[in-house]
UniProtKB/TrEMBL annotation:
This is Carbohydrate ABC transporter ATP-binding protein, CUT1 family (TC 3.A.1.1.-). Residues 4-234 form the ABC transporter domain. GO terms for cellular component: ATP-binding cassette (ABC) transporter complex, substrate-binding subunit-containing. It comes from the Bacteria. Keywords: ATP-binding, Cell membrane, Membrane, Nucleotide-binding, Translocase, Transport. InterPro entries: AAA+_ATPase, ABC_transporter-like_ATP-bd, ABC_transporter-like_CS, ABC_transpr_MalK-like, ABC_transpr_MalK/UgpC-like, Mo/tungstate-bd_C_term_dom, NA-bd_OB-fold, OB_MalK-like. CDD domains: ABC_MalK_N. One of its GO terms (biological process) is carbohydrate transport. GO terms for molecular function: ABC-type transporter activity; ATP binding; ATP hydrolysis activity. Pfam families: ABC_tran (PF00005), OB_MalK (PF17912). SMART domains: AAA. The keyword Transport applies.
Amino acid sequence: MATIELKNLKKHFGNVKAVDDVSLKINDGEFVVFLGPSGCGKTTTLLMLAGIYKPTGGEILFDNQVVNEVPPKDREIGMVFQSYALYPHMTLYENIAFPLQAKKMDKNEIDKKVKDVTKNLDIGKLLDRKPNQISGGQQQRVAIARALVKKPKILLFDEPLSNLDAALRAYMRAEIKKLQHDLGITSVYVTHDQIEAMTMADRIAVFNKGKLMQFDIPDKIYNQPKNIFVARFVGTPSMNIIDVEIIKLGEDVYIKIEDDIKIKIVNKEIKEKINKISEKNVLMGLRPEDIKIRFKKEEGNSFKSKVYILEPLGREIIYNIKLGNNIFKIISDEKYELKIDDDIYLKFPDTNFHLFDKNTGENLL
Ligand code: ATP
């Protein structure tokens, strides 16, 4: 069991700041996902944890001990890669036993450990096959077994599901989460897939351009994004973001979308927060489920709109609704019989919205 701490961690490749001053602390037994777009520095951070890359600056601590100088083989980590990295000429048994043979462990002991680890992963009956004689999902489980057989203190996953088809990916997502939960091994999992991050993680670290944007539980990442990058990166369909103007008129506060579309702020706490914002022009963010479809004008902030297009997804429909010059993506628990160009009303929420600084992207509420 182990805790992990990154203190002002940096990795530069020439002029490229691949990892730029990242600090975070991972608890014992926690499942943390590093999430971000391609090139954001998540893999580089993982490879520093593995000891494959040496940091340009800062410290990595396992169980409060600095490990910067500890070579990979002595870090007690297990690693699972996207490409599985199985040896094609060896049987599955030999693949899994390999790290133990490398340690010159007794044959009977190796046999017991291989049998133990494969039992839970449902590959016990396949052990005399070669990697090309089993499916992608099974190969991935062999790779996990090989990472687990040494009883590592820390598990590192580098996009382990990205070579699998969608159905198998969804299946393995739950399998890996259950396995990690049962074993309780501190784990770091790198992905660019926000659904993997949201469904699997105890906490998510969102990266962008080498910097840590937010480190929080999935619910907070979704509902309280610290900045517009996190807000946009997480959620499908993604958050509606529009240009707005804050108008303060005596006691009243409005968010102006267009001249004749002004949202009156009624919630006292939000009004107070907006009163402290000095910028006039900001960005407003609204999740697709927080704007409601109505068939007549209601009290409060409802505005006449038109159906632009519908995107049915089977279980739900993404309603694209035009209000003034903006098109909002809306999802709802209710299914509405709507056609293109139907006149409807959009009702805006009193509290469930965000305002972001246009320059810094910071969440202002
Ligand atoms: P991906 O999902 O595409 O792997 P990532 O978020 O894991 O992306 P990294 O692989 O960590 O990103 O890369 C971060 C930045 O560092 C990128 O700009 C990348 O081009 C650069 N980089 C990574 N490894 C090296 C290297 N060995 N030499 C030079 N630059 C590198």
